[in-house]
Queue: 3 jobs
Job 1
Amino acid sequence: MKNLFAVAFAITQVLSATAQAQLPAASANRPALDQVAPGYQPTVFSSRDQVQKLFDEMPYSFRAPSLFGLNQGSQCYMRAEIWTYDWYRNQNIKAMKAFVFYTHAYKEAYKKIYKKRFDWWFHVTPYVLVRDPQTQTLTELALDATFSDNPLEMKPWTDLFVYTKRQCAEFVPYDQFRCEVEGASDACPRTVIGTEHCYLVRVPANIYQPEDIEAYQAGRKHGFDFEINQVSESLDKAPLNSSKKFWKSRLGFSTK
């Protein structure tokens, strides 16, 4: 009996090892974390302490954002643009951005639970990569100084506003889920109520808002340079009036 168990165990180990050997570390559907944007080489930090320091030094002087989509306050994509451009210009840090899109299925679930509407359709924040010196594995840390007190790994970050705590679908092209988040439009014959509660999209720092994601993924948006008019728009609309001169000076814009 022991011999039979030993043989069975050995076969199981061989099959497991073979399966693991055949399973690539990255695939077309799930690339390695530092290869999610082909051609773009994001900065990789060597310790979480470095990322914490970056987070602690993030200037925060924006108009208070509106939690439920009212037309006031700073917009998340503008804050993300200012922060990432600041890091790139002043510290030569090439960050990434994480967009989370909330589906109609999630909004229906939210309304049933909380008896009120959830009006956001997306949220975005910068994130960076940190490499564990022991294992060499990469971890993503979201730096959302508006809504968190410390850098967060990706799932805790999406959980900030996905109150059902569902895992977001990842590495899905925007045009494949747009009807689940945008609803009926010229591009969507009908609103789709699917099974996902959210979609997570990772893009280079220069991607500004959802329409740029679609252009980037379709190959219509090339290069990784920031568009200065988008930075300028963010500076005009996101910071507090008392902070605009500070930000424009910091980012090299005229303060006149």
Job 2
Amino acid sequence: MQPIRTITFAVNTTKPGAEETARYLAGIADCEGAKTTIRPDYPLPPDALAGQDLCCAVGGDGTLLGVLDAALESSCAVLGVNMGKLGFLATFSAEEAAQDLPNLIQGQYAIAERSVLRCTTRQGESVYGLNDIVIKETEGRGLIRLQVASNGNPVSEYHCDGLIFSTPTGSTAYNLSAGGPIIGPRVSAIAMTPICPHTLGNRSVIFDNSSQIRVSHLEPGPCPRITIDGRVRFKSEDNFPIEIAVADRSFRLMQNPDHSHFAIVRDKLHWGGPTIR
């Protein structure tokens, strides 16, 4: 792989020790000949990573999600340093990052191309999500009624608390908590999981990556809330119907060459069983 020459450290200053870790890692990178920049203003603006080879997100999975738009705009690779709890995406601890950074800078790394969802409103506004798109009633008005179609063909109507549309990357997040499947990161799929459906026959559906999914809100009154990777991103509240599809660009996640996705899953979910050698 190509050596890393420019690195931006995106720091979540609310995480204890994140600033100190970023400065320490930047010092290591400087010694390896890389040009570094430290930015405490995540989520990063879309043009923040122009001309950068690598963005090092120091904080946790949420910090890494906050650099998505800038990373997609520049095709910059992203490395996550976990200062939090879970770390499904930010898989490097501060100690591991310090130990491995010299080798990574010299080109000893792997890039995982992760699929991204694009959500487009009826007004034509589009937002990208690495983990999931969640449609949910949040005002205490009870269940919502949604209609889903794929490639122009009706799928079902859902009377539920909401729907989760997840990438394989996000399948271990809200999708998993709602009873959805864990999907390997290289699988080309979109998972749709209903949240507490009124009809017990409504279960998760797996769509292929070519699917153009349309979601309509069937009831009068205020539309349900749409969150992308846990944040409200749309300016308008009158967004339905919405279109969901796999984007034509991917998120480039930097990993060690010997990285194992399911080793992370076993560790974070406390799965037992012997180690396969």
Job 3
Amino acid sequence: MKSLNSNLPTSILVTFGFLVLLLLPFEPLLSLLGFGRFVSEHLGDTLKNLFIVIFGVVMIRRFGYRRMSGLTKFRPENLYLIIIPFYFILAGPAEYWLLNYQFHQIDPMHILVLLVSTLSVGFSEEIIFRGFVLTNLIEGKSSGQSIAVPILISSALFGILHFLNLFQADAHIITVLAQVVYATMFGIGFGVILLRSGSIYPIGFVHGLINFFSSWDQLPGAVEPTNVNDFKTWEAFISVVIVLPFFLYMVSQIKSISLNGKHQIGQATEEE
């Protein structure tokens, strides 16, 4: 580990802390308070992600990564890079339209609960994996090592976590493998955007919106087509293909990232 990156053990420990916080028992507590299953699950997720964000911010501040993590910059550089992944937002509705999902009986309150929950996921994952883990690995890389290495390692950690989806009742091995692949590709892309834009807030927001528009089938009252399982393998393959152009373009941007001293990356940071 030390030869690969001196800060890899710390990054793994913070990732483990992220997993521990995901186990907080908010859902059963909310169920006891009389909330329905959907609201309990997603409101519980929101509360977990709030704790994860607090944990991530505390770690970022503790290690002195505020500027490099993008926490102090609200006006990003290279705004066009943040706009590019917006095309993923259209992928979810397009799939639901093509497969003839029905959403006529959806409660608007459930839509709001889902939106808040998915946005909280976007911000919590970005704070941990881009804000802390990526920054920490950049600080731990050797002087002659390419910045692509910490980007890849942090993204691989993010992608590997999606193997946990195998424990879901309706898990499909092909679908989960595809999730691991495209989550890793997303991680690389969002890592590049953070380092080129200098702000973590836009990618947290975009990440959350992508999750929201691809999660409508979870809404109570959503009616999926009877043959939806026949498309699982194709859906997995198509998901990776859709992410590929974004991934390849962001990889081409890595050469534009330059380190300008401790805790600063190119023009991506500014004085606090």
